Amino acid sequence: MPNPIIKINNLSKRYRIGAEEKGDKTFRETIMDWVCAPINNFIKLRNLTKFKNNDLENVIWALKDISFEINEGEVLGIIGKNGSGKTTLLKVLSRITQPTNGFAELYGRVSSLLDVGTGFHPELTGRENIYLNGAILGMRKKEIEEKFDEIVAFSEIGKFIDTPVKRFSSGMWVRLAFAIAAHLEPEILLIDEVLAVGDISFQKKCLGKVQDVVKGGRTVLFVSHNMGVIRNLCKKVVWIDNGKVVQKGDVDEVVKDYEKAQMRQVDKSSYIIERNPEEIKNSSFYFNRVEIFNEKNERTTLFRYNEKLNLIIGFAGFPLTNKYSVEFHIYNELGQMVSMGASGSYHDKYFSSNVKKIKIGIGPLTFTSGRYRILLKVLSGGRYYDIWENAAGFNIIECQPFKTNHEMSVFREGACILQQSFDEIE
Ligand SMILES: Nc1ncnc2c1ncn2[C@@H]1O[C@H](COP(=O)(O)OP(=O)(O)OP(=O)(O)O)[C@@H](O)[C@H]1O
Ligand SMILES: [Mg+2]
């Protein structure tokens, strides 16, 4: 019988909307918390967060009665749409936040890689943070020293290792955080979508490292919106929606059902899609609307083979940096990515942060008949502000695959890169 290394028991987490549960801790408080916590083996999390009953209308349950177990050496993928509770689950497991009800037991040293901003002390240098994180994991100085060069080499941050991490770009932050989390040999590694940040070659390097960690028999919980990566890395998957477990089981089965559910959502959509506010997590810059047009500027979701598609995309809020870029992915009904595009990395096209409406032109569409869905991402300062999974859907209704009249472009990452344009509107 395999041993459970994590037991999650009726775990619930309630947030109050618009209210901070607690202020940031000082560095000293954080250290004291760490020192006082039993680090090496048994961690029990209990219902320490209390709310008054009269606040009920202002609360949301980010997690509701979640129970499951993870065995030692298992690589568990965690999937679910935006705002479904994935990050909250990892935050509770890594003790960044406390559960409202229920508890989780973790029988091993935990290292986590969550949002940019957790895990590092901003005033300390990269070097000092490596030692700090090692100490938190219960490692001796000599053990950390042995890993030090490997971590710095992997992170590719070179001479910036002696710079306070508050001066790091978010890309540098993620590189170092990933290098530390993966090299300091935790027994349980929690990773939240970090591979979405950074360039493709670094993402590949990270995936390779995660695979090494997995082969070394460690337990990994891995949150991602990228079903290709999930299929590649995980044998088991848990699908979370609205804070509840919808399904847990073998990767192929769960991912297939998840993707079917996403397609159903696209089916309901039309050529003007307003963003559901519940899907927007605490982001300061996000998509709020998309409209689909054909090349004659008619609103439609029906396209013929070789026709072009235009998306008019609206944004709300402001990114922290003054420029942003956008990406799109197109998925078929099997959940395979069939095409992608990126204004920044493919075309060096960046929008000023006060541009609130843009147009993406895609095509000629050289897809076979069937339904397709479009995912949109907005990137600024090396970080994804928003990922809109079911931004839009369209159908190819007539297909003449042997009569192409366009110049077929390159294939990349298994997807066909169609002609694409990115333009500012307002
Ligand atoms: N500190 C907070 N205060 C209030 N609500 C919060 C807080 N953190 C998360 N939430 C809410 O809890 C829900 C779950 O959020 P969570 O970040 O766990 O989702 P997620 O599955 O990680 O989403 P994504 O895929 O977009 O990263 C969302 O409705 C979110 O708005
Ligand atoms: Mg998240």
UniProtKB/TrEMBL annotation:
CDD domains: ABC_KpsT_Wzt, Wzt_C-like. It holds the Pfam family Wzt_C. One of its GO terms (cellular component) is membrane. Transmembrane segments: none annotated. Residues 43-267 form the ABC transporter domain. One of its GO terms (molecular function) is ABC-type transporter activity. The keyword Heme does not apply. InterPro entries: AAA+_ATPase, ABC_transporter-like_ATP-bd, ABC_transporter-like_CS, ABC_transpr_TagH-like, Bact_Polysacc_Export_ATP-bd, P-loop_NTPase, Wzt_C. Keywords: ATP-binding, Nucleotide-binding, Transport. SMART domains: AAA. PANTHER family: TEICHOIC ACIDS EXPORT ATP-BINDING PROTEIN TAGH (PTHR46743). Belongs to the ABC transporter superfamily. This is ABC transporter. It comes from Candidatus Nealsonbacteria bacterium CG08_land_8_20_14_0_20_36_22.
